[in-house]
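Record type: ASSEMBLY
Status: queued
Input:
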Amino acid sequence: MQLAPAVTDLESLKDHSSLARLLSWNAAGVQGAKFDRGELTIWVDRASIREACVLLRDDAACAFNFLSDVTCVDWYPAEPRFEVVYHLLSIPNKERVRLKVRLNSGSPAIESLTPVWPGANYFEREVFDLFGIRFNGHPYLRRMLMPEDWEGHPLRKDYPVEGYR
Amino acid sequence: MILNMGPQHPSTHGVLRVLLEIDGENVVRIMPDIGFLHTGIEKTCEAKFYQQVVPLTDRIDYLCPMTNNLCYVLAVEKLLGLEIPPKAQWLRVLLNELTRINSHLVWLGTHAMDIGAMTVFLYCFREREEILRMFEMVSGQRMMTSYFRVGGIALEPPLGFFDRVRDFAGYFPEKVDEYENLLTGNPIWLMRTKGVATITKEDAIALGASGPTMRGSGVDFDLRRDMPYTSYEKFQFKVPVAQEGDVFARYACRVAELRESIGIVRQALDGMPEGPIKADAPKVVLPDRERMKTEMEALIYHFKIITEGFAVPAGEVYQAVESPRGEMGYYVVSDGTAKPYRVHMRAACLANLQTLPTMCEGRLLADVVAAIGSIDIVLGEIDR
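Status: finished
Output:
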C-alpha cells in the first residue's frame, strides 16, 4: 500500500473543525498543521497553548474533553529543540487531534495544563523528569520516575543510553 | 499521622508506595509515590531496530503482553502503511481477548484477596493457568509472549490450539458464574465495595481515567467499538457500563467484560479466515525458513532485516488500543531510519492512579485497599 503524501496546507485542512475553530479564534497562534496517515497535527504558539486547549475542550462542535497524553520529542541538535506533544480525544465525536508546541533549548518552559485537565498532572511531571521542561503553574513539579537527586534528564538525546558512569 | 504504605506491601500490587496522612481511621491526604520499577524502556527503544522493540513491549505491562505487542505493531504498521491479512487480524483479536480474560482473572483474584475473599484467588488462577498454557502453545512463553510481528504473526498456531481454545470458551462462562456466586451476592463483599471510593463521571474524564475505571462511572466509551482497530468492527459485543462509580461498579464492569470477551473469542474461532498470517512485504517481514533454503532473494532479505533492520518512512503516529486497564497508546516517531526516533507509551494505569486521591480522601483507611484494587494497577506499566 502506498502512503498518501502529508497535507500541510492550512486552507485545504480547514474542514477539520478543530483547526477551523483555532484559526477563527487566533490565526497568529497557529504555526502550522499537518494531516498525515489519518492523523491531524496542529502546531500552536507557546503562549496560547492553554487557551487553545480550553477552547477545544469547551467548544460544542469540537468537544475535545479528554486529554489522552502529554509527551515530548527532543530534536537535538536542531533548534527549536523540543516539541511538547499533546494528544486530545473527543469522546462524543470519537476523534483525535495532536497539538504540538516548539520550545527552544535555553530554559524550556511552558504553561501547565493542570487547570484545564487535572489529569495532566502526572504526564507533565514525567516530561519534567525525563526532559527537563518546566511547566509553569504545575501544583507539584517534582521528579517522579527518577530519584530526587538524579542529575540530568535521561530521555534527552544528548544523554547516553548507558547513562553517565 | 503520616503513614507509609508500601513499597513492599501485599495489597499495593507491586512496588507502589502510598503516603497517607491520616486522622484516626480517616484519610486526610493520600499521595502515591511511583518510580521504583523504572527501567527506561522508552530510552532503550531508541537504540533498537523496530523489530527488536517487540520483546521490550511485553515487559511494560506484564499482565497483558499481547495487547502491548498489538499496540506497538499497529503503530509501526501504520507508519509503514502495511496491509495485514485477515487471518492475522482475527488471530490478533482472539489472542487479545484471551489476554484480557487473563488480566481480569489476575485482577479479580488479587482484588478479592485484598478485601479478604481468599477462595476466589484460587478459582481464578485455575482458569488463568489454562490460558497461560495456550500462550505457551502458540509462542513458547507463558507470560512474555512476543508473538506478534510487524506485518503479522510470528508463526502459525500449532495443531490442536483452536480445539483447546474452543474447549475453554465452552466451559469458561460457567466458571464466571462460580466467581459471581462467591462474590456478587456476598454481603461482606457488598459492604466492602458498594458506595466505596466513588468517583463521578466528570472527575473521571478530567483526570484522564479510562477503561473500566471510566466505564464504572457511566462513560460509555470503548476504543474497540468506537475507534475500531484490527477489524474489531466485524465482531458483535456489548460494552458494559455502570453508573454508580464505586468499587462495585468497576467490579461489575470487569466481570461483564469477561463474558463479552469469551463471546468475541468464540466469534473469532467460528469466523477464522483462511490465508497467510504475514503481510506481503518482503523488505519488512522475515521470509519462511523453507523459502530461505531454496530462494536466493529470501536469504538476502532475511540477512538484511536481521543485520540492518528495515527503514520506516519519516513521520509520527499515535495508536491507541483498549487494554484491560484502559487506553493504551503508543506514540512512535520515525526519522526515516531503521531505529525509532522516539517511542512513548501512554500508560492507562498512570492516569488511572491519579484518581486515587479523589476516591479516597475523607474516607476510611481500609477503603484505600479496596480502591487500589479496583483501579487495577500494574506498576510495570506505570513506571516503564
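Annotation: The interface with chain A takes residues 34-35, 38, 40, 42-44, 46-47, 78-79, 81-83, 205-209, 219, 221, 226-227, 313, 315-318, 320, 327, 329, 331, 333, 341-342, 344, 346, 350-351, 353-354, 383-384 of chain B (CB under 8 Å).
Annotation: The radius of gyration of chain B is 21 Å.
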